[in-house]
Amino acid sequence: xxxxxxxxxxxxxxxxxxxxxxxxxxxxxxxxxxxxxxxxxxxxxxxxxxxxxxxxxxxxxxxxxxxxxxxxxxxxxxxxxxxxxxxxxxxxxxxxxxxxxxxxxxxxxxxxxxxxxxxxxxxxxxxxxxxxxxxxxxxxxxxxxxxxxxxxxxxxxxxxxxxxxxxxxxxxxxxxxxx
Length: 179
Hints:
- By secondary structure, the chain is of the alpha+beta class.
- It contains 3 helices and 6 strands.
- It has helices at residues 56-63, 114-126, 134-141; strands at residues 24-35, 48-50, 68-71, 86-97, 100-107, 156-163.
- Helix 1 crosses helix 2 (114-126).
């Protein structure tokens, strides 16, 4: 009964006060960038393709300024309906494996398009178009128009949602890896 692109791996009975979105304590996303001159037909719409060389070390240095609790107004969609732009990024790591650059981010919650906006800022820094401290400047400005273009949706994966242990739900993150 599910659409072709959705699969069920497990199910569990939970209390009536459980809510899949509002009961979550933390969420983790992975954003994957294929960084080589020619894109992949097989990975089309599964990764973000960037043909220009990326400096993942610069991207990681910039990412550090986004870790912690901040007002992420500069990193939210115009139509975001969240009551508050304050979120806490617990972990934000940029790594490279071969032709793939991985952005792994864990937070207590995310704003609409927040991860894709962060990825867009880090891409500009990785290409050398912006200085490393630009991520901190964009964050401090609290102005969405300064952060540039969102990274495309292809490449964004929800990899884990952590709930209170009392719900007894499995916590088995599965990170997508290509390359």
